[in-house]
Amino acid sequence: MSLDQLTNEAPAYNFAYLDEQTKRMIRRAILKGIAVPGYQVPFAAREMPMPYGWGTGGVQVTASVLGESDILKVIDQGADDTTNAVSIRNFFAKTANVDLTTHTSEATVIQTRHRIPEEELQEHQTLVYQVPIPEPLRFLEPRETETRKMHALSEYGLIHVKLYEDIATHGHIATTYAYPVMVEGRYVMDPSPTPKFDNPKMHKSKALQLFGAGREKRIYALPPHTDVVSLDFEDHPFTIQEWPDTKCAMCGAEGVYFDEVILDDAGNNMFVCSDSDYCETRQSEGHLGPLNADYKERMQ
Amino acid sequence: MSLDQDLPLLSVKNLSHFYGQHLGCKNVNFDLYPGEVLAIVGESGSGKTTLLNCLSTQIIPTDGAVFYRNRKGQSDNLYEMSEAQQRILLRTDWGFVRQHPRDGLRMNVSAGANVGERLMALGDRHYGKIRDTALDWLEKVEIQADRIDDAPRTFSGGMQQRLQIARNLVTNPRLVFMDEPTGGLDVSVQARLLDLIRRLVSELGLSIIIVTHDLAVARLLSDRIMVMKDGKVIEQGLTDQVLDDPHQAYTQLLVSSILHVGS
Amino acid sequence: MYVAVKGGEKAIKNAHTLFAAKRRGNENVPGLRLDQITEQLSFAVDRVMGEGSLYDPELAAMAIRQAQGDLIEAIFLIRAYRTTLPRFGYAEPIETGKMAIERRISATFKDLPGGQVLGPTFDYSHRLINFDFDAEAAPETPPSSDEDIDLNAEVPRVSDILGKSGMIEPDHQFDEGHETGDLTRTPIDFPTDRDVRLQNLARGDEGFLLALGYSTQRGYARSHPFAGEIRFGEVEVEFFAEELGFAVPIGTMEVTECQMINQFKGSAKAPPAFTRGYGLVFGQAERKAMSMALVDRSLRWKELGEEFSAPAQDQEFVLSHSDNIQATGFVEHLKLPHYVDFQAELDLIRTMRKEFDAQQNENGDEPKMEAAQ
Ligand SMILES: Nc1ncnc2c1ncn2[C@@H]1O[C@H](COP(=O)(O)OP(=O)(O)O)[C@@H](O)[C@H]1O
Ligand SMILES: [Mg+2]
Ligand SMILES: [Zn+2]
Question: How far apart are the CA of A272 and the nearest CA of chain C, in angstroms?
Fold first, then answer.
């Protein structure tokens, strides 16, 4: 260390905000995560200029994997236009100057909170999840020292105790999001608070899936084509949410994850795709739902 | 198989444990045979719990070895096993019934889940079958079937202990450790629990190491008895022999004090 | 007719404009200058430096102004800035024994080498709002210091004085080869040693530590504390320069140090002696330094062979929840949209209610809703 260095001016912000040393540290954690799918790798998360719990883990992972030729998409609740998605996208627009898109198929890196896009992801894509609580056992056992041991020894009986209790009390498993999964038959993993509807999309996905938890300082990963099995009982198998007889009011899609929109205070509601890009793409292709303005026009 | 019956299940060699400088137990040696019930008696502070915790690998002793013969007939030193192997033994081959039910039960989940936990830990994935097994065991320990979905905190002390026993026995363990299982119970509840334990032991052919300061409990349940004082075993032998003809002055004192209270 | 909610972008921009206007307030009131904050709100500046983990009063003042006086927000600004700064290395440990004392009190000895120096303090003031307070008025000239107290002389620490007679445990020693941790570079690995614990507490939330320290006084892991010494003043910071081969001073900083003296019965391994809890905070922050010392001491239960019974002893609990930037982020993240998970729960509750009603019908009971009509 030299005195010269000490008196130098601090440099301007680096590409994608984080300095290269920090990125290397995070990439090492990511590589380790990829090598041991589902295992939570501790990493020295930095303080970011947005609050903990608002995607700092995902932002750090994205910043570390982003290159100048990448095309970035950011979604929150499935939509590109939700406030926090906008805020994170702006952050990268300002600090990384990469191309941005809202189209799932165009993106090379997609940062998400709470959803996996409806459109199937491909080999060249990386999905980065923002994770609030990475530990799937946390609400059964608050102690890190204990949960670490449980993972090390594959002692996962407790998770099934929770599922058992659900069935005993409610008649079925009552976990609807952050639904625990078994990765490659080895580690139980929290898929982040995505609805269980999205769990099957994780299984053998062609895309690389990376998970970043900033406040809890953990990174984990699912390399492409990884086995991801939702935990269940043989006689109470895992099922996903269904909306029978429901169509997207805008694009007419069925079998997607829906947002419920309240129309008035008389109990009237409608359902629209939670994935805004999926919905808009369908509309532009001419699929119209019953409440779409163009639909009415067409009917006239 | 019959050969196995003649070999000890557990072989304890020169076991000592110190808490810092403070003696917990010292130079303990004994063999436990399959189907045998061993009682460890002695006054409070004599090292019974320390010994039991060492045997069950909850404490790694300062010195000595304990060999455990597994289902394949192979005998291994417990303290040379990995923690993973130790923990697997604890939830499959062994049971541990604690003095305080809250230390041995999950108080915030139902009785059924308490009994089913070990099964699920071992990979059982059929809810209906797990529940049936739990019901079976509740019946065996005389807990009504309609209490299966109730939390243990709504149970009486005696029921909680019986639930603890069911939770431990559901995986058909070969060896069960019990630390003062009748400790905090009134006399009539105690009697019922002891009866139950006796019945299960004979039905299942369990080996048991039970810690108690109550010689009456030892007499009722155990084949053999070990008397501890100041961390050391001062006398051991067949229960009837030791209690009817104690050699050590201290044992004589213990026995006579019981007789006194009894008469 | 439904139009998809668009315009998150615009909404954010507008919110920020509104916020800037609110920050400025009435434009007829002169804007706050940084020197007003550093000179007249020094406790706020000190807190922001301490919990922001960055010693720079002017920067702290900037953050306080920008955050409109929300100190946790100001701390957040400092932290986010701090993390982008290049790191040259670690300073040499500061020598609080060589502190230029501004204030130094001991509750354990009436008189002691170096004397009691009350210094600038709220203590013993009557908490009466001064309605005639004149912000512009020049204060009385402070008295020059006591003749027999030389503030420039080195003032030995109470712990060093007691240490000579072996009455108190020596300074904490680590095993040979122990490398001091750095929680900004390595995530905490539980259970963790005292070096990392102290780092965590030093940047921990004052309110959180205050409440925990208070709880130990009320019997939740009581440690019989005495305020052995609290000192506040300026210390020199040195940095080891490789090309010179020795440490050079790079500046000074003000710190508050608190040494709590606690009772300890002794164990099989150690003779009875007083033990210590330690607190060290940037600036003048006595409440924080004292709370930190209380909590530090209670976290040492295992090492001292004490019974575990209370939250203040639980290192996973204390260290995982002490950081107010982490805490505020996660609490406030509940403001973010949770439509997706909420929809999932809504769907489940609807299903369960349907099942419940079906069950009731089967049992011949009227469903509740209808019965009410
Ligand atoms: N965790 C511990 N730390 C230090 N000493 C202990 C600990 N547990 C027990 N001891 C001491 O070891 C001795 C044996 O205790 P224990 O095994 O609990 O006896 P018992 O179960 O027969 O009452 C006692 O002197 C007790 O004070
Ligand atoms: Mg005991
Ligand atoms: Zn749609």
Answer: 9
Same domain, C19 and C106: no
A176 vs A198: CA distance, rounded Å: 11
Q: Is residue A241 included in any domain, yes or no?
A: no
Domain assignment present for C125: no
Q: Say if residue A294 is in the same domain as residue A207.
A: no
**What is the residue with the minimal CA distance to atom 11 of ligand 1?**
B24
Shortest CA gap C306–chain B (Å)? 13
Q: Which residue's C-alpha comes closest to atom 3 of ligand 1?
A: B19
Residues C276, C227 within the same domain: yes
Same domain, C51 and C164: no
Q: What is the pLDDT, as a whole number, of residue A1?
A: 43
Domain count, chain C: 2
DSSP characters over chain A: --HHHHHSPPPPPBTTBS-HHHHHHHHHHHHHHHHSTT--EE--PPP-SS-TTSSHHHHHHHHHH--TT-EEEEEETTBSSSHHHHHHHHHHHHHT--EE-S-GGG-SEEEEES---SSPP-TT-EEEEE-S---TTTTT---HHHHHHHHHTT--HHHHHHHHHHHHHHSS----BS--EEETTTEEE---S-BGGGHHHHTT-SSEEEEEETTTTEEEEE-TT--EEE--BTTB-------TT---TTT---SS-EEEEE-STTS-EEEEES-HHHHHHHHHTT---TT-HHHHHHH-
Q: Which chains touch A (3 or more CB pairs under 8 A)?
A: B, C
Q: With H, G, I as helix, E, B as strand and everything else as coil, classify residue B183.
A: coil
Q: How far apart are CA C168 and CA C43, in angstroms?
A: 32
Q: Is residue C349 part of a domain?
A: no
pLDDT in tens, A242-255: 999 999 999 999 99
Same domain, C39 and C101: no
- CA of residue A252 to ligand 1 center, whole Å: 71
Tell me which of C125 and C232 has the higher pLDDT. Answer: C232
Asked whether residue A189 falls in the same domain as residue A110, the answer is: yes
Q: Are residues A223 and A285 in the same domain?
A: no
Atom of ligand 1 nearest to the CA of B20: 4
ipTM above 0.85, yes or no: yes
Same domain assignment for residues A73 and A222 = yes
Residue C167 falls inside a structural domain: yes
In a domain, A240, yes or no: no
Q: Give the residue from B88, B107, B125 with the most A CB atoms within 10 Å of its CB, the best one to mutate.
A: B125
- Does residue A236 sit within a domain? no
Could you tell me if C103 and C54 lie in one domain?
A: no
Instruction: Indicate if ligand 1 lies below 6 Å from the C-beta of B44.
Output: yes
Nearest CA, atom 16, ligand 1:
B47
Whether residues A215 and A295 fall in one domain? no
Strands A187-189 and A181-183: antiparallel
Q: Does one domain contain both C230 and C314?
A: yes
What residues have their beta carbon closer than 5 A to ion ligand 2?
B 49
Let me know whether A176 and A36 are in one domain: yes
* Domain CATH number, residue A167: 3.40.50.11310
Domain total in chain A: 2
Considering the domain architecture, whether residues C109 and C48 belong to the same structural domain is answered as: no
Q: Which residues of A touch C348 (CB under 8 A)?
A: 174, 176
pLDDT of A37 > 90? The answer is: yes
- Say what angle helices C71-82 and C57-66 make with each other, to 10 degrees: 130
B18, B22, B211, B213: residue to mutate for ligand 1 pocket, most atoms within 8 A of CB: B22
Q: Is the pLDDT of residue C162 over 90?
A: no
Q: Is there an atom of ligand 1 within 6 Å of B53 CB? A: no
The CA–CA distances, whole Å, from B49 to B98, B228, C107 equal 10, 11, 44
**Can you give the C-alpha Rg of chain A in angstroms?**
21
**Domain extent for A119:** 20-230
pLDDT score for C145 = 58
